[in-house]
Structures are given as structure tokens and as C-alpha cells.
Design brief:
One of its GO terms (biological process) is negative regulation of VCP-NPL4-UFD1 AAA ATPase complex assembly. The protein is mainly alpha-helical. The protein contains 4 helices and no strands. The longest helix is centred in the C-terminal third of the chain and has 26 residues.
């Protein structure tokens, strides 16, 4: 029965469970910055590899565009001849 009375009383430690508003704001700001940082870097493990893939993709796109322009600019360079 004595244990029940201890739970119902207000100790000084129990009344100070909430941090001060300033501390709470600081903690929320830190948590928000941590979430932003994690979201920015999620999924990208190797930035250099991503850059290389982008460069290869751009080079491939340029080659395709050049080939398309060459195909559409005038007569074809190879002709079939039959004797």
C-alpha cells in the first residue's frame, strides 16, 4: 500500500520533466536540421560515381543528337550499287 502513495505524490523531480521553452526550441531546431541533412543525403552513397554517370549520360545524348543531325543533313553517305 505504501507504494501506491508514492506514485500519487508530486515529487520535485516529476514536476520538472518538461524542458524549458528555450531548450525545447533548440532541440527542435537541431532535430529539424538533422532531418534536412539526412533527407539531402539519402540514397546517394557515392557522389563521384553519380557525377560520372551524369557525364556519361550527357555524352551519350550528345552522340545521339549528332548522329541524328548527320542522318537528316543531306544524302546518306553510303549508297547501294548493283552491277
Amino acid at each position: 500500500m505504501g507504494g501506491l502513495c508514492c506514485c500519487c505524490s508530486n515529487n520535485a523531480d516529476e514536476t520538472n520533466l518538461m524542458p524549458s521553452p528555450e531548450t525545447r526550441r533548440r532541440q527542435q531546431l537541431e532535430a529539424a536540421e538533422r532531418r534536412r541533412y539526412e533527407n539531402e543525403h539519402r540514397g546517394v552513397k557515392d557522389l563521384e560515381r553519380v557525377r560520372q554517370q551524369q557525364l556519361r549520360s550527357e555524352a551519350k545524348q550528345r552522340r545521339l543528337e549528332e548522329a541524328e543531325r548527320a542522318a537528316n543533313s543531306g544524302p546518306p553517305t553510303l549508297k547501294w550499287q548493283s552491277n
